């Protein structure tokens, strides 16, 4: 596999001991091997930041990532990794982003935004607008798995129209979370609301760091170009802090930018950010 053709997984709980993801270095290394074998070349390590539950900070995540890079090197695993977080909605989100306490994705203006799963919070639309106005781009994580989304589907349309990228979970598309969530994922795909697909990997079995099966299903449904855009081009743009390629449309057949894309492993294994 040529490196520039690999997947980029922007949402994965690969670092151990920080949240409900990997619980040991052995599991983390096995997940890294699994991701690499599945065709992923770069994983953004995104532990939860959930106030009162997972009180992770940028400095703590960075220290864990640096140690994990050494473990990857010692195990001769050629997976590139970079920093991020799965950030739960909170009232102090913007000041913590500005202070650098909450990491964005690979130092870009993009970050993962996780709303409450079981209730639509008040003023979420206004909060997301304020984050955009401040120069950040919140990526709404796994909207298809939020229990309130079907009753508030028009909100997802509005958020997408105002510039909030949508990230689906690969396992939702393959049916790992059941038929209801798979059908909602397909609806969002058909409605042109999906920007990115990521693994949201947590372990080796029930929530693995795998993208290839979902890529095949999306390619069959929407075409190879859009499947590549969701798992290669747009994630690459995020890491490069560039604008996201439009979705969907014939322009998604444009060739990938090279430059940094061709050297993810060397770049991120050194711990550098763009």
UniProtKB/TrEMBL annotation:
Give the main EC class. hydrolase
Q: What keywords are annotated for this sequence in UniProt? A: Hydrolase
Q: Which reaction does it catalyse?
A: O-phospho-L-tyrosyl-[protein] + H2O = L-tyrosyl-[protein] + phosphate
Q: Is this entry keyworded Hydrolase?
A: yes
Any Pfam family matching the protein: CpsB_CapC
Q: What are the boundaries of the region Disordered?
A: 242-274
Spell out the InterPro entries in the cross-references.
Caps_polysacc_synth_CpsB/CapC, Pol/histidinol_Pase-like
EC identifiers of the protein: 3.1.3.48
What's one GO MF term for it?
A: manganese ion binding
Where on the tree of life does the source sit, at the highest rank?
Bacteria
Q: Which family does it belong to?
A: Belongs to the metallo-dependent hydrolases superfamily. CpsB/CapC family.
Protein name, UniProt field: protein-tyrosine-phosphatase
What organism is the protein native to?
Devosia enhydra
